[in-house]
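ok trying this again, last paste got cut off
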Amino acid sequence: MSLIYPTEQQYLQVKNWFRNHQEIYTWGGPNMACPMSDENFLKCLTADHFKSFGLLNDDQQLVAFGQYYRRLEHHHLGRLAVNPKHRGQGLAKILMTKILEQAFLDQSAKGASLFVFKDNNVAYQCYQSLGFVETPYPEQPFPGNMKNCIYMVLSTAA
């Protein structure tokens, strides 16, 4: 497995992993919609403050995608997705581990953070297995479409 910076074509592959408005909105946030033009999708994913990564398998297929940015002195993970054809293989853990390794090489931080929707039990258990702990969000109210989310933090000690 290798971590890469996605090409435009790979970004658009990610777009096809979502079947409807609810899936893409939940994954990508309030600026995402379905249908959505390729141009607008690329604009959302390539905003300056995001660092984007793809995970390639041994056959050089894009199997997972994720981003991070600085939020509250943490490397904040977001828009994590595994290609539906490759789910259930532990790829989210590999992706997150590799992204965080790169993030901490780029600059130090207090730790890592992320949001997870309360009803996304599979993701919650994955994040918990990596050492993320449910934590009260330090700012109120929750941002954007995150009202039904849990804030999780991974300390640098973990």
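PB: full thing came through this time. The chain has five helices and seven strands.
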